[in-house]
Amino acid sequence: MAILKVARMGHPILREVAKEVPRDEIATPGFQTFVDDMIETMREYDGAGLAAPQVHVSKRVVVMEIASNPRYPDAPSLPLSVLINPRITPLTERRVQIVEGCLSVPDIRGVVPRCAEIEFEALDRNGEPVRQRFEDFSAAVVQHECDHLDGILYLDRVVDTRSLSFLREFERYHVVPRVAD
Ligand code: NI
User: How far is the CA of 20 from the centre of ligand 1 (A)?
Assistant: First the structure.
């Protein structure tokens, strides 16, 4: 396994629409190793999620995991998930305001309104279809990561740019509710 290099904002690959993974590619050793490397990279940098374009691979693959993440101390836990070719369906008009960060936009936080309840369909790393419903913070993580597959960064979705803060200043001065309508 390997820790992969993370693309930072400004790298063109972060603005591409990533390609679907052919189903027969999923079982190949090369693809399985890539998934393992994505998981290791996400954990190394304490990310709540990581999308393949963030490690310079323009494919529709996302990994997510929230387990006592020091970058998101108040976040609920989310078991390790591998989503291949995910599709999101919004289930409500309700929006939650989520403080987000991104490994490709280091050391910055900003508030993004996200759909409060979504359902996604995807293939897992065994090529099996999965369908799951998420709310609030977990739903926001899915939306953030899937945005990467369409070349969208969370900064594109920040409505009030006054919410932007460097991480150090954020931790020092901001007490923003994690979820606030
Ligand atoms: Ni990100």
Answer: 19
Q: Is the pTM of this model over 0.90?
A: yes
Spell out the domain ranges in the chain. Answer: 12-173
Which pair of structure tokens corresponds to residue 5? Answer: 């290099």
Cα dihedral sign, 111-20-134-28:
negative
Collapsing DSSP to helix, strand or coil, 99 comes out as strand
CA of 95 to the centre of ligand 1 (A): 19
The whole-number pLDDT of residue 181 equals: 46
Residues 73 and 62: beta-carbon distance below 8 Å: no
Ligand 1 midpoint to CA 5 (Å) = 14
Name the CATH architecture for the domain at 12-173.
Alpha-Beta Complex (3.90)
Q: Which helix (H) or strand (E) holds 62?
A: strand 61-66
